[in-house]
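Throughout our pipeline, every protein is held as a single compact record rather than as scattered files. This encoding replaces a full spatial description with a residue-level series of whole-number codes. The remainder of this section carries one protein's record, kept here as part of the documentation.
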Amino acid sequence: MKILILLLLLIGTTGSCQNSEEIQEVSTQDLDLQFKEITNLIASKNCAENSQCSYLAYGSKACGGPQGYLVFSSEVDLEKLKELIENYTTAEATYNKQNGIMSDCSIVSPPQTIGCVDGNCIKMD
């Protein structure tokens, strides 16, 4: 009887592990909503001078590497921005795998010059 109970517990545990590892389907709508949340956060804070501007890589090209770079003010909640970008990047990599997406495999360079123009941090190259 004890062996039967242990066997049932083992089977139940194994099944629950498999369910937690399932990858959720990612759609272009999911990616669009996530990216809009990122850009809304960035747009919510302004800059007063060039030194307040910075950038982070975002996204996942099918061949690897970032999709591009986002420029933002240091006034933004940096931890929240990093979290949103990380979630977006992971979701885009999943989307690429699920849909067999191919890319041009070009390397996207970070912006060489960024600055504050009319209260907004922008790429200047």
Residues 1-21 have pLDDT under 50 and may be disordered. Residues 61 and 67 are 5 Å apart (CA to CA).
